[in-house]
């Protein structure tokens, strides 16, 4: 059985070592690499090309969100999971907008991380219950017609955008031009009264058009 490769980033050396040992114990995972220096994380992920990366959000020098943004901008196929001590609703919304695959808190039991990684490896987005509660309470603007006001194509593009795909990847997925995707996104923003992908993701997931935030 092939192993899924995981890259680990945390600025606390003892915790990082514990995470590496935890992941390495599982027969379906292997540790591709790790670092306590968030400033080095993106370059290492780009070089090692792991299947998944587990990041803290709040780290010195560069935040986990900044690393996630760089990963998405570079169209790297790595699936990112946040393992963090705390996360605010605005951070959760931004993470969703940039295609986060999973979020769980460090206070969770060790087996919870393994459950999360297995879910993500199987193609499922995984959010712990306490994080899902934050996602469900994200503030959103009033939308008269809701997402039902979008055309089928617009709903499809909104879903892909909220999964973290760039305009280029959305165009490739749909067999359309990148300019066409930009026009559709502009129309989506206008109809839903949002002005960026972060606000779109908050609206999309709270309205229930995306996958259920819960990992169960």
Automatic annotation (TrEMBL):
A molecular function GO annotation: DNA binding
Xref: InterPro entries: CheY-like_superfamily (IPR011006), NreC/VraR/RcsB-like_REC (IPR058245), Sig_transdc_resp-reg_C-effctor (IPR016032), Sig_transdc_resp-reg_receiver (IPR001789), Tscrpt_reg_LuxR_C (IPR000792), WalR-like (IPR039420)
Presence of the UniProt keyword Glycoprotein in the record: no
Keyword set includes DNA-binding: yes
Keywords carried by this UniProt record: DNA-binding, Phosphoprotein
Residues of the HTH luxR-type domain: 143-208
UniProt-listed PROSITE patterns: HTH_LUXR_2, RESPONSE_REGULATORY
Protein's name according to its UniProt entry: LuxR family transcriptional regulator
Organism, as annotated: Sphingobium chungbukense
Taxonomic lineage from the root: Bacteria, Pseudomonadati, Pseudomonadota, Alphaproteobacteria, Sphingomonadales
